């Protein structure tokens, strides 16, 4: 089994080491520009176009993340970049779901208990008790009920707030009120106090976090975006905060990453910023999942996490 690896950062050596341990029989190499020698599988994060274009030998491309928007953008910009016969396979959870649940639950509870406002009061040296938000009407709406969204929705629901979820096709998730498809989008949004975004970035979902969506939420709502920066219309968020339609936002992802030093979000105290860390790709879990899938493909078995290229996720 020949495996080609690419990752645009200094951790590549550690990943290669772990793959070599998990698949001792495999012939594993890090891709270098100009390498067109045959390979069965590619393991990549944000690969350059040259690495994949014209590689009819590849049987599968394993994406070192849950979101495949960057790799599909290569195909959209130049159709035919992705080898027609290779399956594109994303990570499924591999340790990301519990991290995402921690991050989102923390942000939701911080707003429920008004810790963001207590933090401001402390900075101002003021001892003041704020009226608590009633838990029964502190409705949390989770956009995306996939591997991560469903897990997050259930983790939040455990704290007793009403939780809704929204997906493309109808889903049933225990303890969650579910909505599906464009026809039910407004019903999903109406009355939501905290909107959590866990959609994949596709042509259908780009800019979904914009003025129209915000206008349907409860006044003084909160936004938590942990999916992709391209979901958010940045100017609309600033307007919604200025008007009071949104009270605050927690953002882990941005259109441009790292977030530029002169970006207005840095100066907005109601926006909490983290540097794309809500769910890190864990090496051990990811290597184990990918190695297992490669062995299954070698045996001729089907595997999970295969991306529908047309659908975009
Ligand atoms: P999944 O593919 O498992 O789930 C996607 C969900 O979104 C599904 O429920 C799907 O509906 C729904 N969906 C897709 N398109 C639409 C649409 N047009 N309208 C309504 N619902 C839609 O993805 P994951 O849960 O694994 O990951 C979600 C995203 O999280 C990733 O794509 C990535 O961008 C982001 N992410 C961010 C990380 C970070 O550190 N910030 C880390 C990991 C992931 P259906 O169920 O009907 O298919
Ligand atoms: C992912 C990510 O998509 O890390 O996995 O953002």
From TrEMBL:
Its EC number is 1.1.1.79, 1.1.1.81. It comes from Paraburkholderia caledonica. The lineage of its organism: Bacteria, Pseudomonadati, Pseudomonadota, Betaproteobacteria, Burkholderiales. One of its GO terms (molecular function) is hydroxypyruvate reductase [NAD(P)H] activity. It comes from the Bacteria. It is an enzyme of class 1 (oxidoreductase). SUPFAM superfamilies: Formate/glycerate dehydrogenase catalytic domain-like, NAD(P)-binding Rossmann-fold domains. Keywords: NAD, Oxidoreductase. Residues 107-278 form the D-isomer specific 2-hydroxyacid dehydrogenase NAD-binding domain. This is Glyoxylate/hydroxypyruvate reductase A.
């Amino acid at each position: 089994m020949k495996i080609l690896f690419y990752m645009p950062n200094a951790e590549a050596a550690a990943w290669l080491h772990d793959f070599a341990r998990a698949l001792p029989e495999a012939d594993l190499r890090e891709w270098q520009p100009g390498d067109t020698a045959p390979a069965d599988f590619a393991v990549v994060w944000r690969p350059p176009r040259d690495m994949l274009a014209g590689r009819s030998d590849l049987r599968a491309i394993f994406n070192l993340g849950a979101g495949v928007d960057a790799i599909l953008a290569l195909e959209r910009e130049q159709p035919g970049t992705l080898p027609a016969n290779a399956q594109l396979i994303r990570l499924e959870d591999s340790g990301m779901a519990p991290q995402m649940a921690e991050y989102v639950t923390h942000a939701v509870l911080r707003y429920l208990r008004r810790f963001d406002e207590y933090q401001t009061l402390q900075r101002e040296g003021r001892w003041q008790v704020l009226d608590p938000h009633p838990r029964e009407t502190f409705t949390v709406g989770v956009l995306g009920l996939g591997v991560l969204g469903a897990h997050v929705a259930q983790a939040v629901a455990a704290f007793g707030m009403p939780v809704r979820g929204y997906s493309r096709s109808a889903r049933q998730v225990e303890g969650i009120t579910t909505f599906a498809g464009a026809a039910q989008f407004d019903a999903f949004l109406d009355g939501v106090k905290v909107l959590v975004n866990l959609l994949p970035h596709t042509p259908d979902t780009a800019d979904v976090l914009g003025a129209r969506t915000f206008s349907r939420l409860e006044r003084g709502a909160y936004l938590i975006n942990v999916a992709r920066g391209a979901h958010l219309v940045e100017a609309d968020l600033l307007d919604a905060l200025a008007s009071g339609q949104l009270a605050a936002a927690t953002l882990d992802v941005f259109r441009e990453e790292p977030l530029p030093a002169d970006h207005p979000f840095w100066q907005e105290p109601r926006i909490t910023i983290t540097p794309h860390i809500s769910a890190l790709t864990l090496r051990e879990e990811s290597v184990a999942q990918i190695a297992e899938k490669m062995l299954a493909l070698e045996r001729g078995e089907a595997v999970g996490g295969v991306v529908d290229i047309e659908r975009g996720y």
